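Issue 218. Parser rejects a valid record. Input:
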Amino acid sequence: MTVNCAVAPDGRPVTDVAVGVMMQADGSYLLAQRPLGKPYEGYWEFPGGKLEAGESVEAALSRELHEELGIDVTECERWRTLEHDYPHAYVRLYFCKVTAWNGQPVGREGQALAWQHLPASVSPMLPAAIPVLEWLVAESVQGPA
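Output the parser choked on:
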């Protein structure tokens, strides 16, 4: 399924972004630190990137995780969607749980990577990543939605 362009409440275009919540069997998840020169540099986030025209969320996520981390996604499932209004962009984030991949994640764009358990020990967190941590906590208490 591809995603359509839309307009934010303030008239700015909506940027569609595929985001991977990479989960290991032990419950750990991968966070990446935003590299220098990008908005919110130094903040921690779940890896992913913008959808290209006509691209599905899953295809964009596979492409982005290969480009950024050098892995090939073999299992992912669309999980949650969140819109967030940053000063530099209005984004619609499509979070996918990634549960299997080939290769070892490496920061191919110079970004630091950290496998984390709840609660996250790295900071600061990118504002739109905070609800994801809350969803993961809720699932760990009550099971998947």
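Fixed in the parser; the record now loads. The first helix runs from residue 57 to 69.
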